[in-house]
Write a structure and sequence with these properties.
This is MFS transporter. It is found in: Cell inner membrane. The C terminus is likely disordered. This protein is 76% helix and 0% strand. The protein has a single domain, classed as Growth Hormone, Chain: A, CATH 1.20.1250.20. The longest helix is centred in the middle third of the chain and has 31 residues. It has 442 residues and is mainly α. It contains 18 helices and no strands.
Length: 442
Amino acid sequence: MASARSTQTTLAFAAVTTLFFAWGFITSLVDPLVAAVKGVFTLTNFQAQASATAFFLAYFVVSLPAAALVSRLKAVPAILLALCTMIAGCLLMLLAANLANYWVVLLGLFVLASGITVLQVAANPLAAALGDPKGSHFRLVLSQTFNSFGTFLGPLLGAHLFLQGVEVKDGTAVTESVRAQALAGIDTAYLWICGLIAALAVFFFLSRRVVTQAAPKPAAATGLLSAFSSPWALFGALGIFLYVGAEVSIGTQMALFLNDNSVWGQSNAPFGVPLLGTLMGSDGVPGVSLQEAGKAVAFYWGGAMVGRALGSLLLTRVRADRLLALFTVIAAAMCLYVVLVGGVTAGFVALAIGLFNSIMFPVIFTLTLERSAASEEATSGLLCTAIVGGAVLPLLVGKVADLHGYAFALIVPALCYLVLCGFAVAAGRTRPVRIGGGASIH
Protein backbone atom coordinates (compact mmCIF):
# COMPACT_ATOMS: atom_id res chain seq x y z
CA MET A 1 0.00 0.00 0.00
CA ALA A 2 2.82 2.36 0.96
CA SER A 3 4.69 1.47 -2.25
CA ALA A 4 1.63 2.17 -4.39
CA ARG A 5 1.18 5.50 -2.64
CA SER A 6 4.84 6.36 -3.26
CA THR A 7 4.57 5.50 -6.96
CA GLN A 8 1.42 7.59 -7.27
CA THR A 9 3.13 10.55 -5.61
CA THR A 10 6.12 10.22 -7.95
CA LEU A 11 3.87 10.19 -11.02
CA ALA A 12 1.97 13.21 -9.72
CA PHE A 13 5.23 15.07 -9.13
CA ALA A 14 6.37 14.25 -12.69
CA ALA A 15 3.11 15.58 -14.14
CA VAL A 16 3.40 18.82 -12.18
CA THR A 17 7.06 19.23 -13.19
CA THR A 18 6.07 19.30 -16.90
CA LEU A 19 4.26 22.56 -16.11
CA PHE A 20 7.48 24.09 -14.79
CA PHE A 21 9.20 23.34 -18.11
CA ALA A 22 6.38 24.93 -20.11
CA TRP A 23 6.22 28.23 -18.28
CA GLY A 24 10.01 28.49 -18.20
CA PHE A 25 10.20 28.14 -21.98
CA ILE A 26 7.46 30.72 -22.56
CA THR A 27 8.83 33.22 -20.03
CA SER A 28 12.36 33.20 -21.48
CA LEU A 29 11.02 34.10 -24.93
CA VAL A 30 10.48 37.59 -23.52
CA ASP A 31 14.27 38.17 -23.60
CA PRO A 32 14.75 37.98 -27.39
CA LEU A 33 11.32 39.57 -27.82
CA VAL A 34 12.51 42.72 -26.01
CA ALA A 35 15.47 43.02 -28.38
CA ALA A 36 13.25 42.32 -31.40
CA VAL A 37 10.55 44.89 -30.62
CA LYS A 38 13.23 47.50 -29.89
CA GLY A 39 14.32 47.23 -33.51
CA VAL A 40 11.00 46.36 -35.19
CA PHE A 41 9.06 49.21 -33.58
CA THR A 42 12.05 51.63 -33.13
CA LEU A 43 11.86 51.87 -29.33
CA THR A 44 14.15 53.12 -26.55
CA ASN A 45 15.43 50.62 -23.98
CA PHE A 46 12.81 51.93 -21.54
CA GLN A 47 9.99 51.46 -24.07
CA ALA A 48 11.18 48.00 -25.14
CA GLN A 49 11.25 46.90 -21.50
CA ALA A 50 7.49 47.52 -21.44
CA SER A 51 7.26 44.00 -22.91
CA ALA A 52 8.70 42.58 -19.69
CA THR A 53 6.50 44.94 -17.69
CA ALA A 54 3.31 43.78 -19.45
CA PHE A 55 4.26 40.16 -18.86
CA PHE A 56 5.22 40.43 -15.19
CA LEU A 57 2.50 42.95 -14.30
CA ALA A 58 0.10 40.02 -14.55
CA TYR A 59 1.63 38.56 -11.39
CA PHE A 60 0.64 41.68 -9.45
CA VAL A 61 -2.90 41.80 -10.83
CA VAL A 62 -3.72 38.10 -10.88
CA SER A 63 -1.80 36.39 -8.04
CA LEU A 64 -4.14 37.03 -5.11
CA PRO A 65 -7.28 36.26 -7.16
CA ALA A 66 -5.42 33.15 -8.36
CA ALA A 67 -4.83 32.10 -4.75
CA ALA A 68 -8.59 32.44 -4.11
CA LEU A 69 -9.27 30.45 -7.27
CA VAL A 70 -6.89 27.64 -6.28
CA SER A 71 -8.40 27.56 -2.79
CA ARG A 72 -11.92 27.31 -4.26
CA LEU A 73 -11.35 25.02 -7.26
CA LYS A 74 -8.31 23.15 -5.86
CA ALA A 75 -5.09 22.75 -7.80
CA VAL A 76 -6.00 20.52 -10.77
CA PRO A 77 -9.05 22.45 -12.13
CA ALA A 78 -7.14 25.72 -11.57
CA ILE A 79 -4.20 24.40 -13.59
CA LEU A 80 -6.47 23.39 -16.48
CA LEU A 81 -8.08 26.85 -16.45
CA ALA A 82 -4.61 28.42 -16.45
CA LEU A 83 -3.57 26.46 -19.53
CA CYS A 84 -6.69 27.60 -21.39
CA THR A 85 -5.88 31.23 -20.49
CA MET A 86 -2.36 30.76 -21.84
CA ILE A 87 -3.78 29.51 -25.14
CA ALA A 88 -5.85 32.72 -25.36
CA GLY A 89 -2.68 34.76 -24.78
CA CYS A 90 -0.89 32.94 -27.61
CA LEU A 91 -3.78 33.67 -29.97
CA LEU A 92 -3.48 37.37 -29.11
CA MET A 93 0.26 37.22 -29.91
CA LEU A 94 -0.60 35.76 -33.31
CA LEU A 95 -3.01 38.65 -33.88
CA ALA A 96 -0.35 41.16 -32.78
CA ALA A 97 2.23 39.76 -35.21
CA ASN A 98 -0.23 39.91 -38.11
CA LEU A 99 -1.39 43.45 -37.26
CA ALA A 100 2.18 44.61 -36.48
CA ASN A 101 0.79 46.36 -33.40
CA TYR A 102 2.96 46.75 -30.28
CA TRP A 103 -0.04 47.44 -28.03
CA VAL A 104 -1.56 44.08 -28.95
CA VAL A 105 1.82 42.47 -28.22
CA LEU A 106 1.64 43.93 -24.72
CA LEU A 107 -1.95 42.71 -24.25
CA GLY A 108 -1.06 39.21 -25.46
CA LEU A 109 1.90 39.02 -23.09
CA PHE A 110 -0.31 40.12 -20.18
CA VAL A 111 -2.98 37.46 -20.87
CA LEU A 112 -0.34 34.76 -21.40
CA ALA A 113 1.36 35.67 -18.12
CA SER A 114 -2.01 35.72 -16.33
CA GLY A 115 -2.39 32.03 -17.12
CA ILE A 116 1.18 31.34 -16.00
CA THR A 117 0.46 33.19 -12.74
CA VAL A 118 -2.42 30.86 -11.88
CA LEU A 119 -0.17 27.95 -12.84
CA GLN A 120 2.58 29.09 -10.47
CA VAL A 121 0.24 29.75 -7.53
CA ALA A 122 -1.08 26.20 -7.89
CA ALA A 123 2.06 24.32 -8.89
CA ASN A 124 4.79 25.75 -6.61
CA PRO A 125 3.28 24.64 -3.28
CA LEU A 126 1.98 21.44 -4.93
CA ALA A 127 5.48 20.43 -6.04
CA ALA A 128 6.84 21.23 -2.57
CA ALA A 129 4.09 19.17 -0.89
CA LEU A 130 4.17 15.99 -3.02
CA GLY A 131 6.29 13.82 -0.73
CA ASP A 132 8.15 13.92 2.58
CA PRO A 133 7.94 17.47 4.04
CA LYS A 134 11.68 17.39 4.78
CA GLY A 135 12.37 17.12 1.05
CA SER A 136 10.35 20.18 0.00
CA HIS A 137 13.45 22.31 -0.84
CA PHE A 138 14.86 19.45 -2.92
CA ARG A 139 11.61 18.83 -4.84
CA LEU A 140 10.94 22.46 -5.65
CA VAL A 141 14.53 23.04 -6.80
CA LEU A 142 14.33 19.86 -8.90
CA SER A 143 11.11 21.08 -10.56
CA GLN A 144 12.76 24.46 -11.11
CA THR A 145 15.63 22.64 -12.85
CA PHE A 146 13.20 21.53 -15.54
CA ASN A 147 11.84 25.07 -15.57
CA SER A 148 15.41 26.22 -16.31
CA PHE A 149 15.73 23.71 -19.15
CA GLY A 150 12.75 25.45 -20.72
CA THR A 151 14.36 28.86 -20.18
CA PHE A 152 17.55 27.56 -21.84
CA LEU A 153 15.70 26.52 -25.01
CA GLY A 154 13.49 29.64 -25.23
CA PRO A 155 16.17 32.22 -26.14
CA LEU A 156 17.70 29.89 -28.75
CA LEU A 157 14.37 29.56 -30.56
CA GLY A 158 13.44 33.20 -30.01
CA ALA A 159 16.76 34.58 -31.30
CA HIS A 160 16.56 32.30 -34.35
CA LEU A 161 13.01 33.40 -35.20
CA PHE A 162 12.86 37.01 -33.96
CA LEU A 163 16.32 38.53 -34.54
CA GLN A 164 17.45 37.49 -38.03
CA GLY A 165 18.99 40.66 -39.50
CA VAL A 166 17.69 42.90 -36.70
CA GLU A 167 20.22 45.48 -35.42
CA VAL A 168 19.57 48.26 -32.90
CA LYS A 169 22.90 50.10 -32.61
CA ASP A 170 23.03 53.84 -33.32
CA GLY A 171 23.09 54.52 -37.04
CA THR A 172 21.36 51.28 -38.05
CA ALA A 173 17.81 50.88 -39.30
CA VAL A 174 15.54 47.87 -39.64
CA THR A 175 14.37 47.42 -43.24
CA GLU A 176 10.79 46.46 -44.10
CA SER A 177 11.85 42.96 -45.18
CA VAL A 178 13.72 42.35 -41.89
CA ARG A 179 10.75 43.76 -39.95
CA ALA A 180 8.34 41.45 -41.77
CA GLN A 181 10.63 38.48 -41.15
CA ALA A 182 10.83 39.24 -37.41
CA LEU A 183 7.04 39.54 -37.15
CA ALA A 184 6.63 36.27 -39.05
CA GLY A 185 9.03 34.65 -36.57
CA ILE A 186 6.93 35.88 -33.64
CA ASP A 187 3.84 34.47 -35.36
CA THR A 188 5.51 31.09 -35.89
CA ALA A 189 6.85 30.85 -32.32
CA TYR A 190 3.54 31.52 -30.61
CA LEU A 191 1.63 29.27 -33.01
CA TRP A 192 3.83 26.34 -31.96
CA ILE A 193 3.56 27.33 -28.30
CA CYS A 194 -0.21 27.38 -28.61
CA GLY A 195 -0.09 23.79 -29.85
CA LEU A 196 2.35 22.82 -27.07
CA ILE A 197 0.06 24.22 -24.37
CA ALA A 198 -2.96 22.49 -25.88
CA ALA A 199 -1.09 19.17 -25.82
CA LEU A 200 -0.01 19.85 -22.24
CA ALA A 201 -3.62 20.58 -21.24
CA VAL A 202 -4.70 17.23 -22.67
CA PHE A 203 -1.83 15.43 -20.89
CA PHE A 204 -2.63 17.08 -17.57
CA PHE A 205 -6.35 16.37 -17.98
CA LEU A 206 -5.50 12.69 -18.40
CA SER A 207 -3.20 12.88 -15.35
CA ARG A 208 -5.71 14.74 -13.16
CA ARG A 209 -6.75 11.75 -11.03
CA VAL A 210 -3.17 10.78 -10.22
CA VAL A 211 -2.32 14.34 -9.11
CA THR A 212 -5.57 14.81 -7.18
CA GLN A 213 -5.18 11.54 -5.27
CA ALA A 214 -1.50 12.14 -4.46
CA ALA A 215 -1.86 15.76 -3.36
CA PRO A 216 -2.17 16.31 0.39
CA LYS A 217 -5.37 17.81 1.72
CA PRO A 218 -4.87 21.57 2.10
CA ALA A 219 -4.99 23.14 5.51
CA ALA A 220 -7.87 25.46 6.23
CA ALA A 221 -7.13 28.88 4.77
CA THR A 222 -6.98 31.83 7.14
CA GLY A 223 -7.93 34.33 4.44
CA LEU A 224 -5.86 35.73 1.58
CA LEU A 225 -5.17 39.02 3.33
CA SER A 226 -3.70 37.18 6.31
CA ALA A 227 -0.36 37.16 4.49
CA PHE A 228 -0.10 40.92 5.00
CA SER A 229 -0.17 40.42 8.78
CA SER A 230 2.77 38.00 8.67
CA PRO A 231 6.18 39.75 8.75
CA TRP A 232 7.86 36.77 7.13
CA ALA A 233 5.31 36.63 4.31
CA LEU A 234 6.06 40.30 3.63
CA PHE A 235 9.82 39.81 3.91
CA GLY A 236 9.62 36.83 1.54
CA ALA A 237 7.55 38.90 -0.88
CA LEU A 238 10.27 41.56 -0.89
CA GLY A 239 12.83 38.82 -1.55
CA ILE A 240 10.85 37.46 -4.51
CA PHE A 241 10.29 41.02 -5.83
CA LEU A 242 14.01 41.79 -5.81
CA TYR A 243 15.14 38.40 -7.08
CA VAL A 244 12.75 38.24 -10.04
CA GLY A 245 13.39 41.90 -10.82
CA ALA A 246 17.14 41.32 -10.87
CA GLU A 247 16.97 38.10 -12.88
CA VAL A 248 14.56 39.50 -15.49
CA SER A 249 16.42 42.82 -15.77
CA ILE A 250 19.66 41.02 -16.56
CA GLY A 251 18.03 38.55 -18.94
CA THR A 252 16.03 41.08 -20.97
CA GLN A 253 19.05 43.39 -21.34
CA MET A 254 21.56 40.60 -21.97
CA ALA A 255 21.38 40.42 -25.78
CA LEU A 256 21.61 44.21 -26.08
CA PHE A 257 24.47 44.27 -23.54
CA LEU A 258 26.49 41.55 -25.32
CA ASN A 259 25.87 43.18 -28.71
CA ASP A 260 27.28 46.50 -27.43
CA ASN A 261 30.60 47.50 -28.99
CA SER A 262 32.21 47.86 -25.54
CA VAL A 263 31.49 44.17 -24.80
CA TRP A 264 31.24 41.66 -27.68
CA GLY A 265 29.98 43.86 -30.52
CA GLN A 266 33.45 44.08 -32.08
CA SER A 267 34.95 40.86 -30.68
CA ASN A 268 35.12 37.29 -31.97
CA ALA A 269 36.27 35.92 -28.59
CA PRO A 270 32.95 34.15 -27.77
CA PHE A 271 33.17 32.05 -30.94
CA GLY A 272 36.35 30.44 -29.62
CA VAL A 273 34.55 29.08 -26.56
CA PRO A 274 33.40 25.44 -27.00
CA LEU A 275 29.62 24.98 -27.15
CA LEU A 276 28.96 28.70 -26.70
CA GLY A 277 30.47 29.55 -30.08
CA THR A 278 28.73 26.58 -31.69
CA LEU A 279 25.27 27.52 -30.43
CA MET A 280 25.79 31.21 -31.29
CA GLY A 281 26.64 30.19 -34.87
CA SER A 282 28.95 32.83 -36.35
CA ASP A 283 27.63 34.52 -39.49
CA GLY A 284 31.20 35.18 -40.68
CA VAL A 285 30.98 38.92 -40.00
CA PRO A 286 33.49 40.20 -37.39
CA GLY A 287 31.91 40.85 -34.00
CA VAL A 288 28.75 39.53 -32.36
CA SER A 289 25.47 40.44 -34.06
CA LEU A 290 22.23 40.95 -32.12
CA GLN A 291 20.95 37.54 -33.23
CA GLU A 292 24.17 35.83 -32.13
CA ALA A 293 24.02 37.68 -28.81
CA GLY A 294 20.38 36.61 -28.42
CA LYS A 295 21.38 32.97 -28.76
CA ALA A 296 24.11 33.47 -26.13
CA VAL A 297 21.38 34.49 -23.65
CA ALA A 298 20.48 30.79 -23.50
CA PHE A 299 23.66 30.30 -21.47
CA TYR A 300 22.45 32.77 -18.86
CA TRP A 301 19.36 30.60 -18.36
CA GLY A 302 21.34 27.41 -18.93
CA GLY A 303 23.53 28.39 -15.99
CA ALA A 304 20.40 28.47 -13.85
CA MET A 305 19.52 24.98 -15.08
CA VAL A 306 22.96 23.59 -14.15
CA GLY A 307 22.91 25.49 -10.87
CA ARG A 308 19.54 24.05 -9.90
CA ALA A 309 20.68 20.52 -10.68
CA LEU A 310 23.79 21.03 -8.52
CA GLY A 311 21.78 22.96 -5.97
CA SER A 312 19.37 20.05 -5.57
CA LEU A 313 22.33 17.96 -4.45
CA LEU A 314 23.89 20.70 -2.30
CA LEU A 315 20.61 21.24 -0.47
CA THR A 316 20.76 17.67 0.80
CA ARG A 317 23.99 18.59 2.63
CA VAL A 318 23.96 22.38 3.14
CA ARG A 319 21.34 24.45 4.96
CA ALA A 320 19.15 26.33 2.50
CA ASP A 321 19.66 29.74 4.11
CA ARG A 322 23.47 29.39 4.03
CA LEU A 323 23.52 28.35 0.38
CA LEU A 324 21.25 31.28 -0.50
CA ALA A 325 23.56 33.71 1.32
CA LEU A 326 26.61 32.39 -0.55
CA PHE A 327 24.96 32.53 -3.98
CA THR A 328 23.59 36.07 -3.49
CA VAL A 329 26.99 37.43 -2.48
CA ILE A 330 28.65 35.86 -5.53
CA ALA A 331 25.93 37.19 -7.87
CA ALA A 332 26.33 40.72 -6.43
CA ALA A 333 30.11 40.54 -6.90
CA MET A 334 29.69 39.47 -10.54
CA CYS A 335 27.35 42.38 -11.26
CA LEU A 336 29.86 44.78 -9.71
CA TYR A 337 32.62 43.28 -11.90
CA VAL A 338 30.56 44.13 -14.99
CA VAL A 339 29.97 47.67 -13.72
CA LEU A 340 33.54 48.42 -12.60
CA VAL A 341 35.69 46.40 -15.03
CA GLY A 342 33.60 45.88 -18.18
CA GLY A 343 35.07 44.80 -21.52
CA VAL A 344 34.96 41.43 -23.27
CA THR A 345 35.41 39.46 -20.04
CA ALA A 346 32.35 41.18 -18.57
CA GLY A 347 30.22 39.39 -21.16
CA PHE A 348 31.29 35.99 -19.85
CA VAL A 349 30.85 37.08 -16.24
CA ALA A 350 27.34 38.41 -16.93
CA LEU A 351 26.27 35.13 -18.54
CA ALA A 352 27.60 33.22 -15.52
CA ILE A 353 25.32 35.13 -13.12
CA GLY A 354 22.56 32.70 -14.09
CA LEU A 355 24.46 29.87 -12.39
CA PHE A 356 24.07 31.63 -9.03
CA ASN A 357 20.49 32.79 -9.66
CA SER A 358 19.63 29.11 -9.85
CA ILE A 359 18.41 28.22 -6.37
CA MET A 360 17.20 31.66 -5.31
CA PHE A 361 13.51 31.54 -6.22
CA PRO A 362 12.68 28.08 -4.85
CA VAL A 363 14.73 28.60 -1.68
CA ILE A 364 13.26 32.05 -0.96
CA PHE A 365 9.81 30.54 -1.59
CA THR A 366 10.22 27.57 0.75
CA LEU A 367 12.09 29.50 3.45
CA THR A 368 9.16 31.93 3.50
CA LEU A 369 6.50 29.20 3.58
CA GLU A 370 8.28 27.64 6.55
CA ARG A 371 8.32 30.90 8.50
CA SER A 372 5.07 32.59 7.48
CA ALA A 373 2.29 32.65 10.10
CA ALA A 374 -0.30 32.89 7.29
CA SER A 375 -1.81 29.95 5.39
CA GLU A 376 0.10 28.41 2.50
CA GLU A 377 -2.52 29.63 -0.02
CA ALA A 378 -2.29 33.22 1.25
CA THR A 379 1.50 33.19 1.47
CA SER A 380 1.89 31.62 -1.97
CA GLY A 381 -0.49 34.18 -3.44
CA LEU A 382 1.48 37.07 -1.95
CA LEU A 383 4.81 35.61 -3.07
CA CYS A 384 3.55 35.21 -6.62
CA THR A 385 2.19 38.76 -6.51
CA ALA A 386 5.72 39.88 -5.70
CA ILE A 387 6.91 38.53 -9.05
CA VAL A 388 5.75 41.96 -10.24
CA GLY A 389 9.38 42.88 -9.53
CA GLY A 390 9.94 41.56 -13.05
CA ALA A 391 7.67 44.36 -14.31
CA VAL A 392 9.12 47.20 -12.24
CA LEU A 393 12.89 46.74 -12.07
CA PRO A 394 13.47 46.13 -15.83
CA LEU A 395 12.00 49.58 -16.49
CA LEU A 396 14.46 51.08 -14.01
CA VAL A 397 17.35 49.13 -15.52
CA GLY A 398 16.26 50.15 -19.02
CA LYS A 399 16.23 53.82 -18.00
CA VAL A 400 19.67 53.53 -16.39
CA ALA A 401 20.92 51.83 -19.58
CA ASP A 402 19.55 54.71 -21.70
CA LEU A 403 21.37 57.21 -19.49
CA HIS A 404 24.62 55.44 -18.56
CA GLY A 405 24.99 52.34 -20.74
CA TYR A 406 24.18 48.64 -20.42
CA ALA A 407 27.12 47.72 -18.17
CA PHE A 408 26.45 50.38 -15.53
CA ALA A 409 22.78 49.34 -15.39
CA LEU A 410 23.80 46.14 -13.58
CA ILE A 411 24.33 48.22 -10.44
CA VAL A 412 20.58 47.81 -9.85
CA PRO A 413 20.58 43.97 -9.67
CA ALA A 414 23.81 44.11 -7.60
CA LEU A 415 21.94 46.03 -4.89
CA CYS A 416 19.04 43.57 -5.10
CA TYR A 417 21.35 40.61 -4.46
CA LEU A 418 22.87 42.30 -1.42
CA VAL A 419 19.42 42.75 0.14
CA LEU A 420 18.68 39.08 -0.61
CA CYS A 421 21.81 38.12 1.30
CA GLY A 422 20.30 39.93 4.28
CA PHE A 423 17.10 37.89 3.83
CA ALA A 424 19.11 34.65 3.90
CA VAL A 425 20.96 35.64 7.08
CA ALA A 426 17.68 36.59 8.78
CA ALA A 427 16.08 33.29 7.74
CA GLY A 428 18.96 31.39 9.31
CA ARG A 429 18.32 33.14 12.61
CA THR A 430 14.54 32.51 12.62
CA ARG A 431 12.92 29.24 13.69
CA PRO A 432 10.44 27.80 11.13
CA VAL A 433 6.78 27.54 12.15
CA ARG A 434 6.12 24.67 9.75
CA ILE A 435 8.26 21.95 8.16
CA GLY A 436 9.05 22.39 4.47
CA GLY A 437 6.11 24.67 3.86
CA GLY A 438 3.81 21.89 5.03
CA ALA A 439 2.87 20.70 8.50
CA SER A 440 2.94 23.17 11.35
CA ILE A 441 5.48 22.80 14.16
CA HIS A 442 3.85 22.65 17.60
